Amino acid sequence: MENLNLTFKFSKKIKIVLTVLIFIGLAALVYGILNYSPEKIWSALLLNSVNFLTIGLGATFFVAVHAITQSGWHVSIQRIPEAISMYLPIGAIFMIIMLFGLNHVFHWIHEVHHDPIIANKEAFLNVPFFIARLIIYLSVWISLTYMLRKISKDSDVGDGQKSLIKSRTYAAIFMVFFALSIVVFAWDWLMSIEAHWFSTLFGWYVLSGVIVKSFAAIIIVLAILRYLGYMEFITKENIHDLARYLFSFGIFWMYLWFSQFMLIWYANIPEETFYFIKRIDDYRFLFFLNLALNFLIPFLVLVIRKFRRVLWIVTAMAVVVFIGQWVDQYLMIFPGTMKKVPTIGFFDIGLTIGFIGIFLWSVLYSLTKANLLSKNHPYLEESFHYENT
Amino acid sequence: MKEISGYYDKEASLLSAVKSLRDNNIKIKDVFSPYPVHGLDHAMGLRRSWLPRAAFIGGAVGAISGFGFQAWVFTRAYPINIGGKPLMAVPSFIPVTFECAILFAAFAIVLSYLFKSHLGAGADNKIYDERATDDRFVVVLDTADIDNNEAEKIKSKFEDSGAMDVKYQD
Prior knowledge:
- The complex is a heterodimer of chains A (389) and B (170).
- With 389 residues, chain A is mostly helical.
- Chain A has 17 helices and no strands.
- Chain A has helices spanning 12-35, 38-68, 79-85, 88-98, 102-105, 108-111, 116-120, 127-154, 160-189, 202-227, 236-267, 270-282, 284-302, 305-308, 311-337, 346-368, 380-385.
- Chain B has 170 residues and is α+β, with helices and mostly antiparallel strands.
- Chain B contains five helices and four strands, in the order E-H-E-H-H-H-E-H-E.
- Chain B starts with a strand and ends with a strand.
- In chain B, 18% of the residues are buried.
């Protein structure tokens, strides 16, 4: 590579497309407010807020993992997960907006005084502590993400080796905090929707979903950049490695999903089984679609080595996983908040399209703020030349 | 003489030697190295390993036999009602099926590796240099149908490429 100074230009054309996406989202929101109950609207908002916030968080996870392990293969694509992680503050705003709709989503808030099971959990499940926890996660996540981003940006003008060593400390702190906080975050915002039900595996199951969908997002953003004519330096080996991540964490997700399901199915305790009975009986199609999209289709396609090296096939699988994770999140939220089985229509899909617009705007804007390559990274050359066997 | 072997002490000179020998249309019989050398497969022109396929076949056989065995036991051989579950309780078969797939895949990998590399019990391999397990690289050429003149040429090629030592083997 002769010229390492590559910048991304956020052209007007892309901005127009993204504005259209955001307006579709707004139209869907207005349509929803006019037609649907507040439960449905807040549930859909919760779905998208959590979904995209955790994608940003998973991108920081990607950066942190590779900083700790001092790996070299990812250096040429490193700026993509960094840019995705810059969505976190916007995601945080949506989470704070969600605080105004807690009543419509979490039934434990208004049943705490006449439901003995929930009263037992009051020490943990009460609104002030709930909000305090949210503020703790968000502030630590965002500040560590910003530190990692700043170190990486500084390396463009300074010493890459020193930056790498410095980033390891913050990455290690982030990893420990992330692993613990994402589990509690999952209890708070997803499991407590059905406050009577609990599963000790739930947090890890959500964690695996977070990781797999942020890998999917990285691949999709990479494909968009390639489509726009950037990132020609990406080799087949980079794509192969990203595809392996998608493949292996898809298996990991399935493993945790099945572990949770099988234990509950086998033990057959009514307190636990009602969660799955509701989902299998009332949401049968989505329940099995979830497994097909998140595991079966990506597994059968990406198990073939040739397909893992073709960007469009990998991107197609990333889109499948992205939709699958949306369905997974839908199944975590809607059966708990809605009394009648809702239908997925313009509102649900349009709102997500709007969020995709905001998300991509934030990602592409962050990409313009730094060089497309972290050019002083000591392992940069390795990521151009290494070979997978 | 049947074989000529060249000895190297550096990874880089080994790689360039293998490349230059192949450029001169000399067929390499085998290369011995104490550790996997990056890029050696490519330099030797080896095709991709069949090991993943062996693993897949082993895994598929394991999964099918694990599942089939459980299905047979729980529905035919010894049907027993466990917690009111149906006899053919597929979710409870999955962990064992999975483990059998892993086990058989691992067996397939290990056995096909041992078979292909002539290792394991009863193996009797020619040892070209004991230091090939420590810090030496050995390149072996098959020269069964080559006369002495030609062999001298090959020897000089070896020496040009930086071999520390060249030996004729019978």
